[in-house]
Amino acid sequence: MCLTLKLLQIQPDKEIIIEYIKQEDYKYLRALGAFYLRLTGSAMDIYNYLEPLYNDYRKLRRRVKSGTGELRPAITRERPGRLADRSARGALRAVRRRGAAQASLT
Question: How far is CA 43 from the centre of its chain?
Fold first, then answer.
């Protein structure tokens, strides 16, 4: 969460965040970029850049209340608008469905 707060403070360009998401070597950097895009991106950005992450089956370690860690999939098979709803303690804004987002562009 500290890195997310720092990204929110410096507000990097969208191209930098997309590079975070596209690189495949560091799974936690990729997850940070996906979470930041989910917080700040438009509906179409979320669908275009986060949907390909469904093919990444690596797991992330999360700390639980007992102090130990557990491995969980980074992305669950829900619609992309609900991508990070479970990974953060706070509630995230809802993302419009793909059809409605595409219709608003035309």
Answer: 12
Work out how many domains the chain is built from and give that number: 1
- Given a contact cutoff of 8 angstroms between Cβ atoms, the answer to whether 22 and 51 are in contact is no
**Which residues have CB under 8 Å from 95's CB, separation 6+?**
43, 46, 47, 80, 81, 82, 101
The parent domain of residue 46 ranges over: 2-105
Do 74 and 31 meet the contact criterion of CB atoms below 8 Å apart? yes
Residue 42 CA to residue 65 CA, distance in Å, equals: 33
DSSP 62: E
pLDDT band at 83 (very low <50, low <70, confident <90, very high): very low
